[in-house]
Amino acid sequence: MKNILSSIFLIITCFSFSQEKNNEFEKSIKTLHNKAISVAFKDQDSGYFYLQKSIALSKQRKHWQYAMDAYFESYNIAFHYNNLHKKKIILKSIDSLYNKQEHYFNKLDNTLKYKNHINYYYGFYFFRLNNYDTSKKYFQNIIDDTENQDSETLKKNKTFLSVAYSYIAKMNADEGKLSESSSLYQKNIRLLKKIDSTNKSSIFYNYNLLAEVLKKEKKHTASNAYFLKSLAYHISKNSPNSIMSSSFNISKNYIELSKIDSAKYYLNIAKKHLNKNHLYNTTYHELNAQIYSQENNYSKAILELNKALYFYKNYATTAKNKNQNLGLAYTNIGELQQKFNKPNLALNNFSTAIQFFKNDSIKSSINNIHLLKTLKLKANTLNNIGDFKKTIATVDYASSILDELKPSFKNNNDKLFLIENAFPLFEYGINAAYQLNIKSKKNNYIEKAFLYTEKSKSVLLLEALLNSKATEYANIPIKILEEEEILKNEITSLEKKINSNKNETLEDELFNLKIKHRKFVEKLETDYKNYYNLKYNFQAITLNETKKMLNNNEQLISYFFGENALYTISVSRNNNQLIKTSLNSNIKSDIELTYRMLSNPKSNLNQLKNRLKTLHKNTIAPISLMHKNLIIIPDGLLNYIPFATLIDNNSKYLIENHTISYINSATLLKQLQSKQINNHNLLAFAPSFSNNNSLLPLPNNKKEADNCLNYFKGSALKNENATLTKFNTESPKYSILHLATHAVFNDYNPEYSFLAFSENPGKENLLYTKDLYNLKLNADLVTLSACESGIGELKRGEGLMSLARGFYFSGAKSIASTLWKINDASATNLMDNFYLNLSKGSTKNSALQKAQVNFINNNRDNALNHPYYWAGFIISGNIVALNTTNYWLWIGIATALALLLLLYLKRKN
C-alpha cells in the first residue's frame, strides 16, 4: 500500500529559519512562513499566497536558500492536497532556481540537504505517477550522494537516506521483485538501528513494508508477526493512517489463512479510524468483499466491490493512478464473477480493466504486472467457456508483456517468482491449442502448444548460457570481464561466510557488493548494445527448428505437468503428437511414493513394478514410439522419475529397447549443441574420507577413477590429491570430468548443496552449487558419481535445482548424474561399462543404456535386479559421442597390424 510510505513524507519536511542572525528580513520571512502553515491546511491557495510573498522577498535579497525553503513548503502543501498539477509547477521552479544558483547552494554548509530534497521531491513525484524507472534514479541519487558522507553529515541526512531505501524497496515489491525488495528493507533496518536507533517510528514503518513483502510471498503468518507488532506501536502513538494500514494488512493475511473471524476483527479496528472521504475506503470495501466471497455470499461481495469502484470514480478524482485503480477495481469484480460462474460478466469487466491499463502513457512495469494478472484471469475464463481462439490471442498478448518484464528482473529468485505466477497462463494456452488441434487437425496448433511449453521452461539457465555467449561475442574488453569475475567471486565468498555465520557487518558489505555488481552489469548493457541484445533478445526454438535439430532415429518427448492434466508433445523428423492425459487427485502422492520405492533397495519389487507400469501407461503408452533414441523433457514431479524404469505391456523396462537422455528444454538443447574445441582427456577425482568424518569412506571410488583411465587418456587424482584447489585449477584443462565422491543435498537452501573433496588444511574442501556459477569449464561430459547429484528443490519450469544443473552454468555440455543415494559397488560396475562404451564411440545415451541393460541382464536372478542399483544414473544435455582416440581402437589396429605382419612373414617363408 503506497499510503504506508506517504506518511514518511512528512518526516523530512521540517525547516529552520534560525540559522543566521535574527534581523528584520528573517523576521519577515518567518512571519510569512508561519502564516502560510497556519492557513494552508484550511485553504491551500492562501498557503501558496504567503509562501509566494516569501519567495519574492528572498529573491529580492538574494537569500536563495530561503526562497528554496519556501518552494519546499509549497510542495508540501501540494502534496497534502494531492495537487499533481501544482506539484509539477513547483518542481519546475525548484529546478530552475537550483540550476541558476547551483554555485551558491554548493557553498552552503548544508548543501547536501538541498540536493537531497530536490531528488526526494522528484523521486516522490515520479513514484506517484507510477514512473518507477525514473523515480528510482532520483532516490538512488540520494543514496549515492549520502551514504559515504562523514558521520555528522550522515546523521543530518539520515532520514533522506532511509526514505530513499524504503521507496526503492517498495517499488521493487510492487513490481514483484520481492528478493531485491526484502534485501533493501533489511539493509534499511540495519541502517536505522545503527544511526537512528531511537527512531522507532521509522523502524516500524520498515517492518511494515517488509511484512508486505512476506505477504506477497504468501508467508502470511510470518507477515502478520511483523504487522501485529507494528499495530501495537501505532496504537500507542495514536497514528490513524498507520493503524488502518496495519489492520488492513493483518486482515488480508487472515483472509488468505481462512481465519475469517480474525480478519473481521482487524477490519473493524481499521473502520473505527476511517472517515467517509478517506481513500482507504476502497481497501475496506475490497477486503469486505473477499470475506463475503470466502463465505460464498456473492451478492454482498459484489456490492462491496461496486462501492469500491464508485469511490474510485467519484471521490479519488485527484489520484495520480486513477487508470490503474480503476483497472484493478474492474479486475477484482471480474475475478469474483469468474469464481461464481458468471463468465460473460467477468469477461466484460476484464476487458474494461485491460483498457484502463492500456491507457497508461508511461508503460510502467507496475502497470504491466497488473495487466499480466488480468490477462491471466481473462485467458482462464475464455478457456473455461471453450473460446479457445480468443484464449490463444490473450495468452500471446500476455506472453509479450512477460517478455517485456523479464529483462528488468535481475535477481534469480524474483525471476522464478515471475515465471511461477505466469505458469498457469501457459497451461491455458496449451489446453486451448490441444482443443483446437482436435477439431482442426492443423499442425500449427501443435506448434503453438510446443512454443508455450518452451517459453515456460529453463528461463534462468538459458539466460545464464546466453549471458556467457553475450560476453564472448559482444567484444567487451577482457579487463572489464575480469573485473566482473572478481566481483562475482567476492559476492559468492561473502554469501558463504554469512551462510555459516550471520553478521550484520558482512551483510552490509554483501549488500554494497551486489549493488556495485548490478550497476556494473547495467553499465555493460548500456555501453554494449550487442551484449544486451544477445542476452535478452532471444527466441524460444520453434517446432520446425526442433525437427531439423533431431536425427532420423531421435524422438523428443516434452511434458507439461499442469494443474489438472499432463500434456505431452512428441516430436520427430516426420511426425508430431499432442496428447492430454487427465490427472487424478492422487497423482502427486503416487509419483512421490514411486520415487521413494525406487530409491529404497528394500522396497517391494512387485509393487514397484505395478506402479512403474501405471506410470508408463500415463506417460509413454499414449505416444507412438517410432524411434530408438528418446530425448525426454520432464516437468513437475516427473523430474524425479528415471524413465528407464517404466515398464511396458511386455513387462520390459523402457531402457531395454530405447536409449534415454534428458534436457530441460529444446531451446536449451540447441544452445548446448554449439561446437567446442576439446582435448578429449579425462580427469577423475576420488577423494578420501576418514571414519572420523561425517562423510563415510567410499571403498570403491579409487577403483572407479582408475577404471576410467583404462579407456581415456588423462589423470586420476585420489586420496589427499583430490582437493578442491586441484579441481578449480585443473578441471578447465579437461574435456571429461569424473567425480566419484559424496554429494550432499541441502533442502533448506539448495545453493549450498555440495560435492566433497579431500580435506586440505587451511583451505575449503566443499564445492557448493553457488560456486559453480563462477566456474568456467570446457567439458563435453561431467559425470557426478555421487549420491543425489541430480536431486534438488523442484521449481516450476526450471526443474530440479540440483548440483548437476549447476554444472551447466559452468559450461558443461552434458552431465551424468544420480537421482538417489547410489550403491558404491554397483556404481563402479556401471561406470566401468559406461566409459568402455564411450571409448568405443557410443553416444552418451547409448553408452549408459548399454551399461544399464548389461547390469540388468547380469543380475536378473539376484537382489541387484532392483532398479535402485542400476537406474539412479541419468544422462542429460548434448549426448553426441565423445571424439576420442580410445585405447580399444588402438588395440584393434595393433592386433590387425600384428596379424598382417604374421601373414606377411608366413608367406615370405
From TrEMBL:
The keyword Nucleotidyltransferase does not apply. The keyword Membrane applies. It holds the Pfam family CHAT. InterPro entries: CHAT_dom, TPR-like_helical_dom_sf, TPR_rpt. Keywords: Membrane, Transmembrane, Transmembrane helix. The chain crosses the membrane at residues 887-905. Residues 611-878 form the CHAT domain. This is CHAT domain-containing protein. The lineage of its organism: Bacteria, Pseudomonadati, Bacteroidota, Flavobacteriia, Flavobacteriales.
